[in-house]
Amino acid sequence: MSKKSLDNQASQIAKLEQQIDILQEKLRVSETNFGYLYDNNPVMHATINPLTGYIVNCNSMLVSTLGYKNKKSILGTHISKIVTEKSSIKIVSLMDAFLSQGPIDSEEVTLKTKKGKSIQSILNSRAIYNKAGIVVKSIFTLVDISEVKKAQRQAKNQKEDLERVNKDLEQFVSICSHDLQEPLATIRFSSDFLMQKFTDDLSEKGKEYIGYIHEASGRMAEQIKGLLEHSRIGRDLKLTKVDMQEQLGVAKYDLKKRIKETNATIICGELPKIKGYKVELRLLFQNLLSNALKYAKKQVAPIINIAAKQEDDFWVFSVADNGIGIKEQDMEDLFTIFSRVPTKQKQEGSGVGLAHAEKIVKLHEGFIWVESEFGKGSTFYFKIKK
Ligand code: ADP
After folding, report:
1. CA of 351 to the centre of ligand 1 (A)
2. 172 pLDDT exceeds 90?
3. Does ligand 1 lie within 6 Å of residue 353's CB atom?
């Protein structure tokens, strides 16, 4: 070989050595970075030999969460040492699946601390392959979800408690209302009887007082009826796709006599179909429409506008009237059962319509509110998820 070609070879070798040095440095930096991330990660990591199930590496988070002194006390032991017996069986079958099918995702396993305390965790696992494409290690990532589970359990318990209390309350209202109806019917019957049979014997004052009894017991009967209806809303719910246009049509049909008598104009935009409770949504329209007709200005024919518009994930419905309106100070308790605003025209009612409306909207996890200008009209809005 000539000197020139020898020099050439030597310079190529030097170049290759330089490249190897650069690559080795890159590898060293990358390993340091990985090591740092692995060790200081706020989630737990354990590197497992997938064939034997022995722990070959782990990070500080795993050591401290499980209550061990240092890594040494965990390394070289079997994975079954740090999980419960049940989870150990699960991991063995997961490892079989892991070797044949690849990664493990979002599996629930229960870790066991040194003192035997259980920690519910989510396990993900990824493989490290050798040149021949064989899995040599699997890296377990474990996230402690015991706090989430605790919160879920608490939420579930609270929901069950709330459902029980609601049921008790509904039963209580229903029993009370039934029981109250009977003595009330006796009062009404007796006062009517007194009025009819003893009219000639009664003084004007006596007749006036019996009139009060008759009127008050009638009002009470209406309130009891309203209370019963209120407690029944949401009892037998069936979630379906509800055509709001159709439900408004039915509500209008039910109110046709009042619409005709008041000479009302009802203008309606395009209403959507939503997921909801059909009977209740019809009742909602019926209550808002009937109020818009009832609280109209004297000598002014009601004009009622019904519309719906989209707002992010919600539909916002509105029922606007040109009626008497509501004063700012009267708006606060409007949706509370039996709350009524005294009006000049003394419209009939028992103060349950808007309480029904609110309960129905809440059943749909929505909101209801009113905007109004006294003397000009009111707009009731309700917002329901699409
Ligand atoms: P009720 O109509 O039987 O009194 P509601 O619960 O339906 O009971 O209404 C509560 C109160 O809200 C009414 O007494 C009335 O003062 C007021 N209100 C409801 N709707 C309207 C409306 N469209 N315009 C003006 N006031 C209204």
Report:
1. 7
2. no
3. yes
Q: By the 8 A CB rule, do 114 and 68 touch?
A: yes
Q: How many C-beta atoms lie closer than 10 Å to residue 121's C-beta?
A: 23
Domains 41-144 and 238-386 share a fold: no
Q: What's the 106 CA to ligand 1 centre distance in angstroms?
A: 53
User: What is the CA(266)–ligand 1 centre distance, in A?
Assistant: 19
Instruction: Quote the pLDDT of residue 177.
Output: 79
Q: Which of 229, 266, 334 to mutate to test the pocket of ligand 1 (most atoms within 8 A of CB)?
A: 334
Residue 109, class by beta-carbon neighbours within 10 Å (0-12 exposed, 13-18 middle, 19+ buried)? buried
Where are the chain's structural domains?
A: 41-144, 146-232, 238-386
The structure tokens listed for 304 are 């009622």
Tell me, using a 6 A CB cutoff, whether residue 378 lines ligand 1: yes
C-alpha to C-alpha distances, 3 to 11, 29, 349, 353, nearest whole angstrom: 12, 39, 115, 107
pLDDT in tens, 130-161: 888 888 888 999 999 999 999 999 999 999 99
DSSP-derived pairing of the beta strands 303-311 and 265-268 = parallel
Is residue 354 within 6 Å of ligand 1 at its C-beta? yes
Provide the CATH topology of domain 41-144.
Answer: Beta-Lactamase (3.30.450)
Per-residue pLDDT tens over the stretch 21-30: 999 999 888 8
**What CATH number labels 238-386?**
3.30.565.10
For ligand 1, atom 7, the nearest C-alpha belongs to 353
Q: Is the distance from the beta carbon of residue 350 to the nearest atom of ligand 1 less than 6 Å?
A: yes
pLDDT tens digits, one per residue of 8-60: 888 898 899 999 999 999 988 888 888 888 888 889 999 999 888 999 999 99
Residue 354: pLDDT over 70 = yes
> Residue 354 in contact with residue 335, Cβ under 8 Å?
yes
Which amino acid residue places its CA nearest to atom 8 of ligand 1?
351
Ligand 1 within 6 A of CB of 349? yes
Q: Write down the H helix ranges in 47-84.
A: 60-66
pLDDT of residue 1: 67
